[in-house]
Specification:
It is built from 27 helices and 33 strands. Strand 11 and strand 12 form a beta hairpin. With 899 residues, it is an alpha/beta fold. It binds one RNA strand of 78 nucleotides through strand 9, strand 13, helix 7, helix 10 and helix 18.
RNA sequence: GGGAGUUUAGCUCAGCUGGUUUAGAGCAUCUGCCUUACAAGCAGAGGGUCAGUGGUUCGAAUCCACUAACUCCCACCA
């Protein structure tokens, strides 16, 4: 068949993906083989593929494909995540565009919209993964809100509630005013911000009874103006003064002693509040006076509790000011901040304004809205128990982290664990299975937790005073659960291990083999899966965790839409082919390091595919004949067989350490340098000649073996060539081909051949320097004990007709070179440039003299000879001997040339 | 404020418990080649006082200390 000189991936890739699907090659079911399971980190159901997904899924595919080829029953389970906040936000936006407000819809109506959005977009990202070549078992595709997963989530909620690990409590929580939901502490990310520190005047309300006046060392009165005495409070959030219910000083603060026991007036608001004392206050910060707003700051809330202060909640859920604020009602908090500063200044209540760097919390999902601390009644999961069970498996090495440095991060978090706020004020998600009983407003709330309204009713009837309650009187909690409360069950719920504990699948596939994920979700997801695994299966969810880095652009910036530096993965695939893009990702992706993605790497991948393609073209172009195998071919086969074994073993080692980019580089070099540049050149028949059957058979075997080693990285082209290398049965695939068993490589033979390569390179160099055409064959000589095992190969590759031993009485103008201690001599007739030769020899002499000198320094050092290991000393002696002999040869040559 | 990590050729990185010819790879660069598989190629070449300082040692890119720069994570100083 005629093959184009350039490989074109597009057709090939879709053809083979379809073939794999048609033959059910991705599907797994339990059998006698050892399982190899990976569960996909479920992408957002309405998301689209970005470079991070590309990296992550390429790695998973490589691992899964390799597992299949090493006798394992590999199962890669795909699925998507309902991503409650993100998806709900998208649906709300879409509705807004149609002029529909979420508040105008019933829960059911809203969910209908959300589901249709999900059905419309939910498949996109999984379709995109197919383009990449992902060998997921699509029959198992799951969704965190499908029936099995939803049931699992609710069961777990009920179970944990019954175990007393889930509780409902009034806490200071993080509120996202845009999404209008509470967030967990992990979902708040803090950003440095340039802001202002406002120094506000709080006039003393009871000046008449001020016994101690504020003075400086000279006795001058301070903090006094026409309106009286005042304290100064430094704050970054002047808009919260309407919620102030006290001012706090440190009891030991000398400069604020005069305020003890007094009252001050909140500026503008004119509410009189007490001055309280607490050691919490930092005397050095600002003026040492702290305004206390218990409703809107965690620390203030705690102060409020200890000092029994009132709590005034001045914000509405959407971040506007509430009636309780008394001022600026209905305006947004950020607007109010600007306005109140103007108003305060106008009233002469601002002493000064300073620049200030502080950290502001933002919602992880919604990074343009600052999170507001808010006092709320929410559902929490007690985490201490889970921290206790999740720490040992990682510390004891039952779960291995790659890279291991994340063990410290993990440990740190678990040792300072906080309870997990699991309720969200969202509709898109798993609705909390809690039912409230009818109670009056001033009574404490009463509720039951149960899987169904019927069960809830049964539970409710047991409560004193509610014996006659009816099902209509129960009202189910409107809130839903944090998305991670379903993802943390993923490795279990995918195999239905919650609803049907101990079923065949969960027993076979769990624990999974490896989790491939980004380090930024180590707390959100990785840690919590370990918790749920230990809780429900008494076993770890995975044996290994491979943390990928963040994909950045080539100058190290994060990829983002606004920077426009994030390439569209699908466009890259169109341009270079999926194999090339996979290679591009993997060529620079050591575990845990960020990867600096450069399109040039895809080009490198494409070039490599082209290289393989052309090697294939060459091999297929040969005519095969029954004839004796030449000595060169026999030696080449023997050598390459050993080389292949050595690299194969090396790759095994690299995979066991998850050093995938190195494994790829090693096999890349094996194919390009050893196989194409050396082996094929050595066995290549002369133009128009045929190849002997034996060599050809070996070559096909090698090619097959190489394709298998390459397949996990570049599945498409390897399948294409493997299918065409020889006749295959219908349904057969390289995907299922096993990696051959290899023997231990003969290292002596391999290093002998490396010497041969060096000889050839030297000859090529001299040809280049002296302009001797490759076509002109040469006779060469060697001095000393040269092994002649590979002489025939030198002859073939370097076009040498005879290699002979040098006789001392010969006198031929020549160019010489040294390989190890053997000197090689190439007669070059009148092309000799004596001066150049002398210069070269002198440079060599200088180098070896210096080298010998450093060796002798060691050997003359008694301490070295006495203390170093014998083999090290022996090595140095060998260096000495070699260098001495080289110098001898070089000096002789120098003499000859100088004559 | 606490913790972790990084710093090796122009770029991205190897170099595991110190000693394998005074540091390796890929890419990029330079030189010469359109040699009948591949110019997405072939044959060559150059390029590094291993961040700095000090220490341990017969011997340090490798171990220790300090310094500097960068990165990340955690933390309720308004």
């Amino acid at each position: 068949m005629e093959l184009a000189a350039k490989y074109t991936p597009a057709e090939v890739e879709s053809k083979w993906y379809q073939y794999w699907i048609n033959n059910g090659l991705f599907h797994s079911q339990p059998d006698h083989r050892e399982p190899y399971t990976i569960v996909i980190p479920p992408p957002n159901v309405t998301g689209i593929l970005h470079m991070g997904h590309m990296l992550n899924n390429t790695i998973q595919d490589i691992l899964v494909r390799r597992a299949r080829m090493t006798g394992k029953n590999a199962c890669w389970v795909p699925g998507t995540d309902h991503a409650s906040i993100a998806t709900e936000a998208k649906v709300v936006n879409k509705l807004a565009q149609q002029g529909i407000k979420k508040r105008d819809l019933t829960r059911e109506q809203f969910l209908e919209h959300a589901w249709s959005w999900t059905h419309e977009h939910g498949d996109i990202i999984l379709q995109q993964l197919r383009k990449l070549g992902a060998s997921c078992d699509w029959d198992r595709t799951a969704f965190t809100m499908d029936e099995v997963r939803s049931e699992s989530v609710l069961k777990v909620f009920v179970d944990l509630y019954k175990k007393g690990l889930i509780y409902r409590g009034l806490r200071m929580v993080n509120w996202d005013p845009k999404a209008q939901t509470v967030l967990s502490t992990e979902e708040v990310i803090y950003r440095d911000e340039k802001s202002k520190l406002y120094y506000l005047k709080y006039y003393v309300a009871d000046t008449d009874t001020l016994p101690v006046k504020p003075t400086n060392e000279e006795g001058e009165i301070l903090h006094k103006d026409a309106k009286g005495y005042y304290a100064v409070v430094a704050t970054t959030r002047p808009e919260t003064i309407m919620g102030d219910t006290a001012m706090c000083i440190n009891p030991k603060d000398p400069k604020n002693q005069w305020l003890r026991g007094h009252k001050v007036t909140v500026p503008l608001v004119n509410r009189v509040i007490p001055v309280i004392e607490d050691r919490y206050v930092d005397m050095e910060f600002g003026t040492g006076c702290l305004k206390v707003t218990p409703a809107h700051d965690v620390n203030d809330y705690n102060l409020g509790k200890t000092h029994h202060l009132d709590t005034i909640d001045i914000f509405n859920p959407d971040g506007t000011l509430s009636e309780a604020a008394g001022l600026y009602i209905g305006q947004d908090r950020m607007e109010v901040r600007k306005q109140i500063v103007i108003d305060l200044s106008a009233a002469g209540l601002v002493e000064k304004i300073e620049d200030y760097d502080n950290k502001v919390g933002y919602s992880e999902r919604n990074q343009d809205t600052a999170v507001e601390p808010r006092l709320c009644r929410q559902w929490f999961l007690s985490m201490q128990h889970f921290a206790n069970i999740a720490l040992p498996p990682v510390l004891e090495g039952k779960i291995k982290f790659y890279p291991a440095k994340y063990i410290t991060t993990y440990k740190n978090w678990l040792e300072n664990i906080q309870d997990w706020c699991i309720s969200r004020q969202l509709w898109w998600g798993h609705r909390i299975p809690a039912y409230f009983l009818p109670t009056a407003e001033d009574e404490e709330e009463q509720f039951v937790v149960a899987l169904s309204p019927e069960e809830a009713l049964e539970e409710a009837k047991k409560i004193k005073g509610f014996e006659n309650i009816t099902i209509d009187q129960l009202s189910r909690d409107e809130d839903s659960l944090d998305t991670w409360f379903s993802s943390w069950l993923w490795p279990i719920s995918l195999f239905n291990g919650i609803n049907d504990p101990g079923n065949g699948e969960i027993k076979y596939y769990y624990p999974t083999s490896v989790l491939v994920t980004a380090p930024d979700i180590i707390f959100f997801w990785v840690a919590r899966m370990i918790m749920s695994g230990e809780e429900y299966l008494k076993d770890v969810p995975f044996g290994n965790v491979y943390f990928t880095g963040i994909v950045r652009d080539k100058i190290g910036r994060k990829m983002s839409k606004s920077l426009g530096n994030s390439p569209d993965p699908l466009e890259l695939i169109d341009k270079y082919g999926a194999d090339a893009v996979r290679m591009g990702m993997m060529l620079s992706a050591p575990a845990g390091n960020d990867i600096l993605f450069d399109e040039a790497l895809c080009e490198q991948g494409r070039n490599f595919n082209n290289k393989i393609w052309n090697a294939f073209r060459l091999v297929k172009s040969w005519n095969v004949e029954d004839k004796p195998q030449p000595d060169t071919a026999q030696k080449a086969v023997e050598w390459f067989d050993n080389m292949l074994c050595r690299v194969h073993n090396e790759i095994d080692g690299l995979f066991s350490k998850y050093r995938l980019s190195e494994a790829l580089m090693v096999v890349y070099k094996l194919f390009w340098d050893e196989f194409s540049a050396w082996y094929l050149e050595m066995i290549k028949p002369a133009f128009g000649q045929s190849i002997d059957r034996q060599t050809y058979r070996h070559t096909l075997q090698f090619f097959d073996h190489l394709l298998r080693l390459l397949h996990p990285f570049i599945p498409f082209i390897t399948e294409e060539l493997w299918q065409n290398l020889q006749q295959r049965e219908e349904g057969e695939s390289i995907m299922q081909a096993q990696l051959p068993q290899v023997h231990t490589a003969d290292t002596a033979l391999l290093s002998q051949f490396e010497i041969t390569k060096e000889v050839i390179t030297n000859i090529r160099n001299i040809r280049l320097q002296k302009n001797i055409p490759a076509k002109q064959s040469l006779d060469i000589f060697h001095k000393g004990n040269a092994d002649n095992y590979y002489d025939s190969l030198i002859g073939k590759i370097a076009n040498i007709s005879h290699i002979q031993a040098w006789k001392d009485d010969m006198n031929i103008p020549s160019a010489n070179f040294l390989v190890n201690t053997t000197e090689w001599i190439i007669p070059i007739g009148n092309m000799i440039d004596k001066e150049a030769e002398i210069k070269k020899i002198e440079a060599d002499i200088q180098y070896y003299e210096k080298f010998l000198n450093s060796v002798m320094n060691k050997l003359n050092n008694e301490k070295f000879v006495n203390n170093a290991k014998p083999e090290v000393v022996a090595l140095e002696r060998k260096k000495q001997a070699d260098a001495t002999s080289k110098l001898e040869t070089l000096r002789e040559n120098l003499k000859r040339f100088s004559e």
